[in-house]
Design brief:
This protein is of the alpha+beta class and 218 residues long. The chain contains 11 helices and 5 strands, in the order ααββααβααααααββα. The protein has a 5-stranded mixed sheet, with helices on both faces.
């Protein structure tokens, strides 16, 4: 899918972040192909935000859009169980990567990166908050709500505005999205890779549990 310039401009006016005009969601590739774990493991432009040991036997990589309701549901209902059962016990490394499907998702991802810097724990806390408040900022009052979240995390209003005008950061998010789309064939959110094996769409904890246990036994 390609967002038209007219729709994109309308989204910008609603968002209030005119500086993000350089962002254009990519054409999504429909034919899914199995990718190697090496392809998935490779960070492109931005450092990975991950929880769990780097040498864990199982690595789960999630591609998500901050405005995706299925991603928000997964973050609320499934991820805490995976974290408690497998990440916190050192059995799984969990990587979260941005795949913004619209301008507001890009803004949310940029804010999370600016707040967290290189701190993965803080990054996961911010995206959790953004998913919990998705209805507030993704559909209305985007600039106001993101500004408030930024200030709650210790950023000044000016720092929030500077973050959302950071073209270099936006370019890196776009480059990583392009790699995911063209190389990994990600075409929807959420999309997961478990040791390189792709799972598309909202997935239950029971399904993750089954796959993880199988990999841990092998």
């Amino acid at each position: 899918m390609i967002i038209t310039r007219r729709a994109f401009t309308a989204a910008l006016s609603l968002t209030g972040f005119v500086a993000l005009a350089g962002f254009s969601p990519l054409r999504l590739i429909a034919d899914a192909m199995a990718q190697s774990a090496t392809d998935v493991a490779k960070p492109v432009s931005l450092p990975d935000m991950a929880l769990g040991p780097a040498n864990a036997a199982v690595t789960i990589t999630e591609y998500a859009s901050m405005t995706c309701p299925h991603c928000a549901t997964f973050a609320k209902d499934v991820f805490p169980k995976i974290k408690s059962e497998y990440v916190d016990t050192g059995k799984v490394r969990y990587v979260f990567r941005e795949f913004p499907l619209d301008i507001k998702a890009a803004a949310g991802s940029m804010l999370a990166r600016c707040i967290a810097k290189e701190d993965s724990g803080k990054y996961f806390a911010v995206i959790d908050l953004l998913f919990k408040q998705q209805n507030d900022w993704a559909s209305k009052n985007t600039a106001e709500t993101l500004g408030r979240i930024g200030k709650q995390a210790g950023l000044s209003q000016q720092a929030v505005e500077d973050c959302l005008k950071d073209q270099a950061l936006l370019d890196k998010i776009a480059a990583d999205q392009k790699y995911a789309s063209e190389v990994l064939k990600v075409d929807s959110t959420p999309t997961f890779f478990i040791n390189g094996d792709k799972i598309k769409g909202e997935t239950s904890f029971e399904e993750f549990d089954k796959r993880i246990k199988s990999l841990l036994k092998s």
